[in-house]
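Session log. Operator J.P. requested a structure for one protein chain; no other inputs attached. Running the standard single-chain path with token output.
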Amino acid sequence: MKFNNEVVLMSKTLEDGMISLNAPNTTSKLIRELREKYWRDHPPNYRTSSWLEVKESPFGKKTSVITIILSTRGCTWAIAPQGGCTMCGYVNDSYRERVTAEELKRQLLREHSRFNDANGDRIYKIYNSGSFFDNVEINEEAREFILKYLASQPNTKKIIVEARPEHMMREERLARAREHVPTHIELEVGLGLETSNDKIRKDCINKDFTFEDFTKAVKNAKKYDMQVKSYLMIKPPHLTEHEALQDAVKSAIDSARVGVSAVSLNAMNVQAATLVEYLWKQGKYRPPWLWTVLEIVMQSMDSISDTEIICEPVAGGLQRGAHNCGKCDAKVMREIEQVIKFQDSSVARIPSCSCRERWELIIEQEQLIPFSLNLQE
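Structure written below.
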């Protein structure tokens, strides 16, 4: 990668109302070094992917959820000198060079052709591991084609994209996007808030915006009849298990308070060439316990009304994902799935396992002796 050219590009995007160019700190430099090393051995390549899931409601209604991952230049924040987020390795699978609108159109059509026969109502999740409203990643021509094409498909009920808060300030882009999608089709934007605590987001995740920025983004989305899904991270690096539990529940409540339609609770999974992997390999980080994930889901469900709670632990039960002792992992994950399906914490049946006592002891000890971040600061 030619980093000098990247700095010039970042300066241009600053003029476009995007991200600030704060001086990279020690964490930023380490993240960047890890990425550089990985990129030397893994040249950029198009890596599109897609899959179909059939979701069934408690009443038996089935919906086809089609996920398509587009290969773009990659997240602007991840490619910036600041290095991106401590846990995110998605940029490693990006092309890392400009991708034209014509190529993005071809990617969409190629991946979508696999699901022409999908039955029932359709929900589309269109991800680019960055920001859908960033013109550097996906320009206006490509956005228009993607939204119009998906909206024209039979039985389309919802289109979900992802973005960063600063791009939600570009109201002309939001207005055009809403024009491309008929009002009977829901348009939802996923925002990676990660936590409502600005200190944790800055020092543990290395994200550059504030909760106030997120709140403004939600308000802007609503002006154009868009829903917002808040992505929250369960157990960023440097937090204890107890702090992670506290932070996730509070962040879910804070997200609902500012008007999001859904809260997605994402248990940390250790991705390649990230600061989290660096710490994990040194024995300085452990992904969350599945007991913690279940507790967060249940407490969030009990504390919030009229907001959907989502949780599907990626790599759950594996060492790189949320896990317990190995014996009870599958059972706990099934209980998480049931709570999410019925949106009701009372359906959970806590499995019996000796490791739960160990987890409870850890939580109790960490309440008495907080040895990482003081969340009150």
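Operator note: Confidence is low (pLDDT under 50) at residues 1-21.
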